[in-house]
Design a protein that fits this description.
This protein is mainly alpha-helical. It is about 40% helix and about 5% strand. The longest helix has 22 residues. It is elongated, with a radius of gyration of 28 Å.
Length: about 100
């Protein structure tokens, strides 16, 4: 593993196009040292390399697709009833792109 130093953090921040003060680099370096200690502690757990890594922390429930049930579509009047501006049976929206 590459040792995290101020130079490594400076290089990373430069590549990500942002700047930090020396004080911020010091705080970040302290945080990284804590993180690395925690990773080393986790690495010491017996059998940790034999466990399959999780890709998602929760059980994904899959119920499948709902069956298609024919329904009567809304009429144009029902759809436009609550719209503030209706022009020629269509809802008029404000201009988004200049």
């Amino acid at each position: 593993m590459k040792k995290v130093t101020k130079d490594v953090l400076f290089d990373a921040s430069t590549r990500l196009l942002f700047t930090m003060t020396d004080e911020q680099y010091t705080v970040l370096l302290d945080e990284f040292s804590i993180l690395i200690q925690q990773m080393e502690l986790i690495g010491q757990i017996p059998g940790v390399d034999d466990v399959t890594p999780m890709t998602f922390p929760f059980t994904a429930l899959s119920h499948g697709l709902q069956p298609d049930e024919p329904v009567t579509p809304l009429t144009q009047e029902e759809v436009t009833r609550n719209a503030a501006y209706v022009v020629d049976g269509q809802i008029k929206l404000p201009k988004v792109v200049g």
